[in-house]
Amino acid sequence: MIGSLAYCILGTLLVGAVAQDTTVPQIGVDDSLWYPYDETLLLKPLPNNDLLLSFTFQLQSEPFDPAVSSHSFDAYEYYTTFPRAIPPLLDSTATRQFHLRFTRGFWDALSWGQLPHGGKQAGASGVELWSLVQAADQEQAFQNWKKLANSLSGLFCSSLNFVDKSRTTFPRRSYASASASPLFNDTENLYLMRASLPNEPICTENLTPFIKLLPTRGHSGLTSLLDGHKLFDSLWNSISLDITTVCTENGDSLCHYEMEAHVDMATHVPSALARNERPIPKPLDGNSLRCDMDKPFDSYQCFPLPDPSETHLKLSQLFSKPIKNGNLFANRPTKICADVDRSTWTAHLSVDDTIYSTHDNCFELSNDQNESGSGYDFILESSDTTQVSPVDPVPIHVGRSLTGNGQDRGGIRTAFHNDNDTPVKLIYFESLPWFVRVYLSSLQITSTTSSHLHEDDIITDKYYLQAADRQRPAHLEFTMLIPAHSDIVMTYQFDKALLQFAEYPPDANHGFEIDAAVITVLSPESEEPVYETRTSTLLLSLSTPDFSMPYNVIILTSTIMGLIFGMLYNLMVKRIVTVDEADKIMLNSGLKYKLLKLKEKLLKTKQTKID
Amino acid sequence: MVSTEFKVALGCIATRLAVMCLFPSLQQQLDKSVEFSTPVTSFRSLQEGIYLLRNNIQVYNHGVVHHPPILVLFLSLFDSDKLISIIYASLDGLIAYQLTKMTKVFKNLKVQSWLPGLLYAVNPLVLLSCVSRSSIIFTNFAISSSLYCILTEGNVILSSVMISVAGYLSFYPLLLLIPLLGMLKSWRQRMFSVIVSILSLLILLLFSYNMLGGESWSFLTQVYGSIISFQKVFPNLGLWWYFFIEMFDTFIPFFKAVFNIFIAAFITPFTLRYHKQPFYAFILCIGWIVLTKPYPSLGDAGFFFSFLPFFTPLFGYLRYPIISALLFLHAIVLAPIFYHLWVVLGSGNSNFFYAISLVYALALASILVDLNWAMLRIEYDNGVPNFKLKVTQI
């Protein structure tokens, strides 16, 4: 208590000192003291008045010697900008890398083209986590992984603690980018584990801790823009965090952690701006409607016009606040770039009502230019928003859906559509929960474009691990070759097992979310992954028992069993006699006879008493 | 001159092949119906096993295959769909043949020798079960062969081996060894039969183990473990499924033990009580297992009913044959309807189908109880029917 008080006072004194010394030109700030931190924002207008905003943050930890255990007496930890929470976590779980994705929404690949960063930073809908854990055996690796998931669950306020054996897969070829990492111990191996929670709602709770990991913590630089209301209001958004261990090969064998964080969002600009004007979604009044005058138009009819193709967009409008400052301490300034079609778009940076422009539409926000504190603003102007810089075509379109009616059986149908002139080689990864009982023998490959098709030509390598009840999910990993200009459809069937009644979630009739399939496109020459994409998640409805019935069922079934047992038992042990004989015997031994005897006895005693 | 057995068997095969050819999609339809296919007997799970075996994927590493390895291996030898149809049809034909042969053994039976075989051939339950390619037919064939060997040829070795095969295929028929011992004449034979059964079972298991190579004994839990401990909760006509869905977690192991004991409960009593009619005791045991097993299908019930014509002398003593028959009809007519209402339409809930499975259990139980009574009654009359006499039990 006293210590913290003292610290506070010291802090205020220091701040005071700095504030007084503003005239002194940066005494003692050596270049080498700038910290390894990098932040950029890329804006890219997309067709249909959509806009892609890509925030990238990169930082590095101080080098450390992997040979010295953090538990050893001499060990000390030294953090600068690197988040304090991460290294102990990696250390205690022997994790070399982990990759976390929070994604929501629909990426319209047909009009927007490729996902940002080649799809490598976008997860499946919900939360996705994969990591490379060093361990002596798989069981120990799983224990570490479970610990990691639990810690991340606490760190990011997500449900990652629900990651268990029945959700974890050990991918073989997918997620291959995560494979290269050093070993500090020859007897141990690296295990790649992956899990995903498709029904996780992504919200502010996950974004806030994410921002706190970054050194600017939302107070300056690009993080000052990030705001849950704006980010999660978009059509598609993805938050990603990758931590990797990088070691130098030469003599001293020092390692450091690298952290790469991304926030990507695709937003529809007119509706995002409209939200500022009309926070409550009321209908527009007649005057502000944009009607097509060529068509019938009166006070009852209005054919709406498309969104205006001219735009003057300020970043501060989109996020309701300006960029506060540069990042203040990094070795490289904050950078904002716009990827626009130069014939119709212009990009400007506005500082204190002064407008700047550059030839490559990239701007660096220096720390000292903005003295009045009004912040930076970024302006995008266009005379024709339909003209955007060309989008990269997607190497492959994949759609996945459930087939079949009825709640006891079903199928999965995955359609691959290759538009290119060359065949596409890809890895199809799928993990299905254990209550989906897959029949791989029903796997069928059909094509709408070519009739002569061999399954082996399409699926060149097949890996399948059956699901185990409550223990592990089914794991499919196919290497596929989709011919040029073709539509390939892959289907297979499954049964849906029933669960015990306590295993159903509270809203059992809502259905169960199934993980997205992960498609990794490989480059034809080097077999290196060039693009990653995920299908949408699926909602599977299982047949449900009647949840109000446990006692009734136990009683009814037991009654029937008791009835059967009793009847057979009686038949087997009792003696057969004629009815007359039975009557006679009953006369001398039955219940009636005994009652009679009792009555007589009682009456007799009464008689004697009266006497 | 072709003997009656052959005619019956050929007729049986012909009807099955005709149905399979006329309704080619019927197999898949029936394979999806809960009445004829269960997770442990369905043909699609067998196909999956064959597929995994051919693709060198571990067959019994959890998953959906619950068929014993030798069966999977045997069927993987046949590539063509037609050939598999013929195998299933001819197995049914063989059962019909054996039934006819067995009828001839009972000289004082006043039914035509072709009747049981013919009834088997036209019994819709067995017919549809065969068309659905449920693997229960292999078990049925093994049981029927065992009876056939002991009744017609007195071949103790083959009979015991066939019981082991039946047990190997679906576990619970192993209990039928007890009534089989009842059918043997001397203690020496009984000892011999037990030893032969155990040895042949061991050989079968060792062969399976050897056949799977690296997979070790995982098939034991996957094939028998899943039957005994009812791992795959899937609706069927038995008493188990809904009970274990609704049961509280902590009591599940206890009740699984209780249900298993229940299956074994009446096997020895039947054998001892009806030691003078060991064949009858054997059939009663089949009926009892059909009633209490975890994954019953109508194919089991149909097989059990095929032996009823052997007991025509008892029919006069049955107290409520109409009620039993109506209960049974009620159950098998309403079962698919209520299942459809629950699972496909969603207009009914699981209780509908549960109720029907209870009715089905009652129907089978009333048949069993009535048969018991009739046998006790005919014993009382010393084989000379006296329907007028009113008797009771005390």
From TrEMBL, chain A:
It comes from the Eukaryota. InterPro entries: PIG-T (IPR007245). Pfam families: Gpi16 (PF04113). Keywords: Membrane, Signal, Transmembrane, Transmembrane helix. This is GPI16-like protein. Residues 1-19 form the signal peptide. It comes from Saccharomyces eubayanus. The chain crosses the membrane at residues 549-569.
From TrEMBL, chain B:
Its main location: endoplasmic reticulum. It holds the Pfam family PIG-U. Keywords: Endoplasmic reticulum, GPI-anchor biosynthesis, Membrane, Transmembrane, Transmembrane helix. It is found in: Endoplasmic reticulum membrane. GO terms for biological process: attachment of GPI anchor to protein; GPI anchor biosynthetic process. The chain crosses the membrane at residues 121-144, 156-180, 192-212, 239-267, 301-318, 325-345, 351-369. The keyword Mitochondrion does not apply. Pathway: Glycolipid biosynthesis; glycosylphosphatidylinositol-anchor biosynthesis. The keyword Endoplasmic reticulum applies. One of its GO terms (cellular component) is GPI-anchor transamidase complex. It is a multi-pass membrane protein. Belongs to the PIGU family. This is GPI-anchor transamidase subunit gab1. It comes from Saccharomyces pastorianus (Lager yeast). The lineage of its organism: Eukaryota, Fungi, Dikarya, Ascomycota, Saccharomycotina.
